[in-house]
């Protein structure tokens, strides 16, 4: 049976990575050989090298389309080297960000067009779509306040204006409204333990559903 592809999305400061880290530890302890946890941009040597270029705060002259293309390039390598082999092996892939991030951050945040970025990534992904996307949502003001209070290192995207982050969140909310069969929104203003429990339940239910379909 083919694997299960689950992505985590959210605006900066939502706590998405914290939630995914906690969940991945739980699942790895019980299903170490059946779970692959990865991230974007990144997930392998080439994609991580591209990540360093994209997020380096010194790269202030980077063109917005160059940025979008670099994300797509990193994603392509990530799929070929990491994601698709794991899915072909029947594993559950938990991925920190995927195409929705590019649509929200580059398409809306950078204002180069959500549809244009989506179409560009269809070439990069060859149509690969997550089975489930857990969108961890938080108001932009709250997310930026969390970043300021808790992060020692701020990357190029973290340092963007409030209006940029509001455009990103608005795009995420549109995506969630347009794809209710795939994207489930979790309120990240709740205690982090509640967010973790909610996301864990969503993943368990998705795995059970996937197993039932495979047995039919």
Can you describe what's shown?
The chain is of the alpha/beta class and about 220 residues long. It is about 60% helix and about 10% strand. The chain is built from eight helices and five strands. A five-stranded parallel sheet has the order 2-3-1-4-5, with helices on both faces. The longest helix has 25 residues, at about 65-90. The N and C termini lie close together (about 10 Å). The mean pLDDT is about 95. Pfam families: Thymidylate_kin. Phosphorylation of dTMP to form dTDP in both de novo and salvage pathways of dTTP synthesis. One of its GO terms (molecular function) is ATP binding. It catalyses: dTMP + ATP = dTDP + ADP.
Tag the structure with descriptive keywords:
5 strands, 12% strand, five-stranded parallel β-sheet, alpha/beta, globular, Thymidylate_kinase, 216 residues, Rossmann fold, EC 2.7.4.9, transferase, Thymidylate kinase
Quick take:
This protein has helices at 16-31, 45-55, 64-88, 99-109, 114-125, 140-150, 162-178, 192-215, and strands at 4-9, 35-39, 92-96, 132-137, 183-187. It is α/β, with parallel strands linked by helices.
Q: What does the main sheet amount to? A: 5 strands, parallel
Count of runs of 4 or more consecutive helical residues: 8
Return the domain count. 1
Distance between the termini: 11 Å
The class by helix and strand makeup works out as: alpha/beta
Poorly predicted ranges: none
The outline comes out as globular
Q: What spatial order of strands do you see in the largest sheet?
A: 2-3-1-4-5
